[in-house]
Amino acid sequence: MADTVTISAQPDDLALDLTTTALVIIDMQRDFLLPGGFGETLGNDVTQLQRVVGPLVELLAAARRAGMLVIHTREGHLPDLSDCPPAKLNRGAPSKRIGDPGAFGRILIRGEYGHDIIDELTPSDGEVVIDKPGKGAFYATDLGAILAEHGITQLLVTGVTTEVCVHTTTREANDRGYECVVVSDCVGSYFPEFQRVGLEMIAAQGGIFGWTAPSGELIAALTEHAAASPSSAVS
Ligand code: C5J
Predict the structure, then answer these.
(1) CA distances in angstroms from 227 to 4, 53, 119, 163, listed in the order given
(2) Which residues form the Isochorismatase-like domain (predicted)?
(3) What pLDDT, on a 0 to 100 scale, did the predictor assign at position 91?
(4) How far, in Å, is the centroid of ligand 1 from the Cα of 38?
């Protein structure tokens, strides 16, 4: 099978070179997804994010079988909060701030249980985990250097939340010259209308900063690619 596949996407079909494409999984952290976590204490409906888990588990498995570079991100801060700008720290209700005790440890603090990725998507050995202090995965991280080192030109962007960290990362990536496919059933928002409009905004105006596509065709293409080149699989 050729390394390049054409997938149905919005606003147009897109040719993807699977050898220079990476899967980016944004902030699938317990603090955002689990009942009792930070996201829920802010009054959000976490079931809106949990619907992403099933499709994303399948996409991740297909990407691993195909030997694709997989990058996980986690939003969070150092225990002394020195990397958290006051403008971010002081926002919201005082009882629910970053660094405060939460159901799963200090909220969004590196090393705490709630800061880590949900069990279903635990990174495998060798997969890249980017700890980011901001909403975008490029800001104050090594992500750009890692992608350059691997010769990556296209990204499958997944994770949460669609209108915040997924959007910010996709916009950052687009400005850096990456072609981004935001995988529509593998991204989630607490707010159904933000999910819908967030996806529409990406593909509007001829793909103003990317493409959107559901995971089905991508999983099929990755599975076929893995079958054609079994040595590429990552265990
Ligand atoms: C938010 C994120 N929503 N990962 N973080 O604060 O989207």
Answers:
(1) 15, 25, 27, 35
(2) 21-208
(3) 84
(4) 11
Q: What percent of the chain has pLDDT over 90?
A: 92
Of all protein residues, whose CA lies closest to atom 4 belonging to ligand 1? Answer: 165
Contacts of residue 183, defined as CB under 8 A and 6 or more positions apart, other chains included, come to 55, 59, 156, 157, 158, 212, 213, 214, 215, 218
Pairing of strands 101-102, 105-106: antiparallel
Is residue 27 in contact with ligand 1, taking CB distance under 6 Å? yes
Name every residue whose Cβ is closer than 8 Å to that of residue 184 and which is 6 or more positions away in sequence: 199, 212, 213, 214, 215
**What pTM did the predictor assign?**
0.97
Write down all domains in the chain, each with its CATH number in brackets.
4-229 (3.40.50.850)
Q: Which two tokens stand for residue 216?
A: 């089905």
Contact 75 CB / ligand 1 (< 6 Å): yes
Q: Say if residue 139's pLDDT is above 90.
A: yes
